[in-house]
Amino acid sequence: MGGDDTGHRGSSRTQRWAARLAIAAAVVAVALPLVVAGFRSLGLAAVALAGLALSAAGLWWALSRRGLVRWLAVALAVAVQGAVIALFVAFGLFWLVIVVLVLWAVVCFEGWAALTEDGGRVAPVEYRTPAPERPFLIMNPRSGGGKVGRFGLREKAEALGAQVVLLDPAHPRDVAALARDALANGADLLGVAGGDGTQALVADVAAEHDVPFMVISAGTRNHFALDLGLDRENPATCLDALADGVELRVDLGRVGEHTFVNNVSFGAYAEVVQSPAYRDDKIGTILRMLPDVLTHHIGSRLRVRGPGVSIDSPQAVLVSNNPYSTDDPVGLGHRERLDTGVLGVLGVNVDNAAQAAELIRGRRSSGLTVATAQDVVIHADTPEVEVGIDGEALSLPTPVRCAIRPQALRVRVPRSRPGVPRTRPRLDWRRLRDLALAHGRVSGGAGTTPAR
């Protein structure tokens, strides 16, 4: 067979029809404005795009300026969008805008449905291992607004044979030391019900001693639990791993002498969260400090260097334990894999309103650098730099090296769990065309990797 048919090999009927519907909706979305408004629709579309760019520039001014200029910038961003809407209303074409937006929504949802099934996903390798005999769990009763007590995690864990230590916020304890003492006393599994910062501290000990680690999704955001495919709504289901679990091998990140399970941030976010006022007034502190941080009047001037990575004077840098999904350019969503053996590197470099406006292009923006590397070094013009490690604020001596530790951690998870959310694929029009034109191919249904 000539050509590359990887885009539709083994495609299902559902995929083919989803691709056809996506293409049909795209054709109608492009043709309908021309039919209704003629070439005048091209000018209106250009005005709408210019309005988006001007609003993005206004938001930049609002974040990077203070006082009257900030409020004028907010007013500009709002007024521009109002003017664009008023223009379409004046031409009697606002209904057309709504219809076109709905059509593009259909294009996206149907295209993603077709290509997600088409792309498939390699399941992480699961290892069947004996159930732990002396599991040791550390629980923070205040984490996640009191999930430990609300879901009865301590009682359920003890009923399954685990030793549980409850942390007392009034008397802070060294959780890494607790974990090491437990291993010295014969524990064969370490686990944490708490935030990602605590998870990282205990995971480091587990990796050091090559014992399995268990995550209980009792934190507030539970990003690590999400990327392990665990149930974040009911942390009690994570305890099923004690009796009916499998092991995964996942990577860990390292920044200086510290381990991280999610990400480490430098620049704007790290500078702001270091402020003593941040905890009591997050929004006010952000609005007060961002202008100086974004314009380099306070904070360190950064440089990022690594194999294939070079970023000068970024306002923000995010280094993650494995890259974030392709539909998540700003690193606020999820990672589909935790075992790729590379760091994700994201740098934001916006010095003026024009570059801020260009950010609407997403990953294609010149102000946004997205890369992967096994290690990167963050240089600064100061002896120390502010760092956010899994949400915890620290100061580290410069330069700071970030590295990946491939498959350093054994994680025990329930055999039955929700799984990692699928990543939305890029809308590849060639693959959609091939799927739409395919006939009679029946999906073979790629199986998952069996536990071993």
Characterization of this structure:
The protein has 452 residues and is α+β, with helices and mostly antiparallel strands. 38% of the residues lie in helices and 21% in strands. The protein is built from 13 helices and 16 strands. It has helices at residues 13-37, 40-64, 67-90, 94-119, 147-150, 153-159, 175-184, 196-209, 223-227, 268-273, 282-294, 353-358, 429-437, and strands at 135-139, 163-166, 189-193, 213-216, 245-255, 258-260, 263-267, 302-306, 309-312, 316-321, 343-348, 368-373, 375-380, 384-389, 392-397, 400-414. The strands form three sheets. Strands 6-5-16-13-8-9 form a six-stranded antiparallel beta sheet, covered by helices on one side. Strand 5 (245-255) and strand 6 (258-260) form a beta hairpin.
Features:
452 residues; six-stranded antiparallel β-sheet; disordered C terminus; disordered N terminus; 21% strand; alpha+beta; 16 strands; globular
